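Let us practice reading a record.
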Amino acid sequence: MLNKKVVVLLCIAVLVVAGCSQAKKEAAIKVAMVTDVGGVNDQSFNQSAWEGLQRAEKEIDIKASYLESTQDADYKPNMETLFDAGNELIWGIGFKMADVLSELATMNTEQKYAGIDCFFEAPTPNLVGVLFREQEPSYLVGYIAGKMTKTNKVGFVGGMDFFVIHKFHYGFLAGVKEGNPDCEVLVQYADSFTDAAKGKAIANQMYKNGADIIFHAAGGVGDGVIEAAKEQNKYAIGVDKDQNSLAPDNVITSAMKRVDNAIYNLTKTLVEGTFPGGTNVVYGLKEGGVGIAPTSYKHVSAEILEEVKGLEAKIIAGEIVPPTSSEEWEAMQ
């Protein structure tokens, strides 16, 4: 039986260990993100970003958090709130936050900022822009669509009409043409990343007009596209994340944009003391920043997937350069 002195010493030891553990927890670097209007559970872009930050919290000892934006006017106050909370790195998720990030980085020179889909002409030493070669996976899923269509007609639904979505759009067109030169591509922009009902209406019209596969690059609007595919028993192609789980019988592949990997990798550099402030970082196939969904095998034949691997290798080698704009697309004709 333990005497009182031993019991007291054991209690002190337990308290010291607990105190150290708590101190370590409190000492963890705080990193936070501000979502775009799609919200953290958008099954796409913002959710992928949050998953990357959660992975960083689990694996490299940071404390992760987020604030959601419901309108553009929320960006700056959300970032200011996170600044006041003592976060060492603040992420802005989406190109529309570029101006706010640049402004705040100039004001708060000791605070680190990073923006997904943000390009900065002359980023300050505490600011990083993160971009993706979205045209590369879009080319690959376009090739798949061109090979798999039975009607020689497929569709593309874009969210907002701007440069990031153009990369999805024109990369897809080039891939479709590579896979099936006779295939027609129907194109429509929703002017939204959140209006699922509009996405469903656009998709239903495209299916009615003969398209049997539709690729969306439209955030929450794409939920409506996928819902239409389920109801019409047609095919859809997802974006950003592997979206097969949303409609296992209908989503044949997805053009994955590994926002999660980018968030994780850049956050890791913060912890390691190698944060690449003052630069813009670009992720493509070569860097493992984009690709097609791992569930593609469920609907796409092994033969087509083997061809896609060959195209991927050529893109990495620079032998194929998918277009990023209407000008580049027209120059290829």
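A brief commentary: The domain at 135-256+301-332 is CATH 3.40.50.2300 (Rossmann fold).
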